[in-house]
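[09:14] KT: can someone run the structure on this one? pasting the chain below
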Amino acid sequence: MGDAVHFELLDNKSGAIHKIEKRDNYMSRKAPRIKGAGYRGERLEQIIASNLDNVCIVNSVAEPVFNNKVVDRLLVSAESSNMEPIIVINKIDLGDDEYINHSINIYKSIGYNVFKTSAVTAAGLSELKNSLKGKKNIFIGKSGVGKSSLLNRIYAHLNLQTGEISRQTDRGTHTTVTSVMVNVEENTYVIDTPGIREIDPYGIKKEDLGYYFIEFKEYIRACRFNTCTHQHEPGCAVINAVEKNNISMERYESYLRLLKTIEEGIIF
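[09:31] RB: done, structure tokens below
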């Protein structure tokens, strides 16, 4: 999704792609394991989309509940892919929460753009729309957080299918089953994606992970060892910054959890 290609239309109304242009960037993940397959070998790379400007990471206040660990994993994917992350906290019409506002303040303090939105009341949508203009944007997040509903409300001519949340599981029902790229305005494109159940960034080494937590960067240079993984090494400037509250404990815990998946191949 998002590739620039050279293609030929055939007489039977099918087409043939002759060339794919070099990608400026692309977002990928480790391909999900098949449950019950019993295979625990190396997981292949699965490309989600390419040639993007913005990655709109959509989470929700409730239904399903806010999950900062998912936000942090998607931030790593965006940072490692050289894309601009935009954090969208949707469904604010369902209430306000001290923890969510605390998390928003953390993301804003380290330099991320955060929008609080509602597809019901239209809160925050004009500001979000302005950030999408003239860009190629992907909307990504767990099922049920309201990606399609937001896009339908921002762009009135869209008619993306939306679904309900399961009361038993507090999860969406995968109403969007394939990624769809739409030219919504002049030079403005949006990609609506199916809800993700897991996102393990592909191709990141454990000694490099800290560079994709952007608030770690200024401290990494001061670590005693250049291969420091910031979990137990003596002279670690990142750990020292966490102890001094210069790096939030929430973000550091996300880092450790993601580091564990890199080392052991665990699915969250």
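[09:33] KT: thanks! The radius of gyration is 20 Å.
[09:34] RB: yep, looked fine to me
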